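Justification of resources, computational component.

The compute hours requested in this renewal are based largely on the per-chain cost of generating structure records like the one below. Each record pairs the submitted sequence with a full structure-token output. That output is archived, and it is also reused by downstream analysis tasks.
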Amino acid sequence: MTSAHQEQQAPVRPTAQDEIAAAGSELIGGPIGRRALTGGSWWTPVRVVLLVMLGMFALGMVQKLPCYESGWFRGATSQYVHACYSDIPHLYTGRGFAADLTPYFDRIPQEISGGMEYLEYPVLTGVFMEVASWLTPQGGEMMQRQQIYWMVNAGMLMACAAVLVVCVARTHRRRPWDALLVALAPALALTATINWDLLAVSLTAASMLMWARSRPFASGVLLGLATAAKFYPFLLLGPLLVLCWRAGRWRAFGTTLGGAVAAWLAVNLPLMLLAPEGWGKFYTFSQERNIDFGSFWLIISQRTGNPLEHANTYATLLVLLGCAAIALLALRAPRRPRFAQLAFLVIALFIVTNKVYSPQYVLWLVPLAVLARPRWRDFLIWQACEVMYYLGIWFYLAYTGSGDDHHGLPTEGYQFAIMLHLLGTLYLCAVVVRDILLPERDVVRLDGSDDPSGGVLDRAPDVFVLGSRKGRHPALPASQEQTVRWEPRTGSE
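The structure output for this chain reads:
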């Protein structure tokens, strides 16, 4: 193997492409050398990012220590002041796990749940919560049992985080170091144990890895399982549909869709038949839920005094219009967008227009943002906005829950925090759209690559381009990956 070919196959070093990464590497001795990457060292990129992820996850658990010791049990204000709130210990008692009730089948007494008759989570997440309760001892004081339940869930969620970072590191074969952004993301460390979102996030990352490896059925099965844990992964079928349409890869899309439907039904159908009321609670609750924290709808409602009873309809309309705009962008772009780019835009659209933008929803976007736009500056700007919002929501809740003392962040300050994290997300969307319109600025394609996470779409020729008189664009020749830019043919076909 020639040295030139070895250079082609070596992992891309972010310190050689990104000035922020290069400057940050000075903290550990400067940019990593080529021999460190191509030698036989145990310290492979995947192992390094995995260890960094585990370390950051552990730091996130330490950040929850004030609540673990007493904050979750001493009253609401303490857990907000220390910014260490988690749903996990509260729902252990509030959803009947401590009372050994069976999710979806047993009705939860009102004095326990505060009015929620059944568990309001999708089935696979409910199974995750139930397994954690099986691993939690039933004897002893309730406070101690809640602590153990949170610790058990944290351990299981850490495993999900490990799967997540390994999948991201392996999705772009030549860019494993990009996963370091996922591992180091401060918002991920802070929000990982608030709720159970990491289960769906890790399954979605595994699905994208399988798609990148040209295994559409396995990708569909994992996407169906992810949708059985959280609704949002279902939306990724939209970008796949548009991209397969442009490339004419209908069989791959159909295989993925079939796998997703089969996996989702395998998980949901038993409960749909045996416990329809409990199974449907997630969907009715999502539909009936009022405007809540983190959304721009809340700002409008607070500023105008209007409860916006039809926010659900408005949000759905905005999502449909936004998806149509993204589809138009994908079909008219000078070069077919990468799957990760469209996936990020669709999920960001769904979150930004939603009537609730909970702090842990940032977990949905972190891996997609890294795959779509692996630039340290843009990622860190966005993460700074999310960390500010993370602090803002808890200080606002401390303000509203501290009685006449009002210690914390007032309403106007919280509205500013909402706008900050919405604008941070929109900023990242803007640079991704710019990369789609100006593909020569896409950092992933600087080496001549097409779509490393595109699977069967990678280097596939276009068969449909909206508004194109030529109607067809060439594939990127594999032999010229490192030297040729994507250029449409000048002659008609």
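The chain has two domains: 1-42, 44-480. The chain is about 60% helix and 0% strand.
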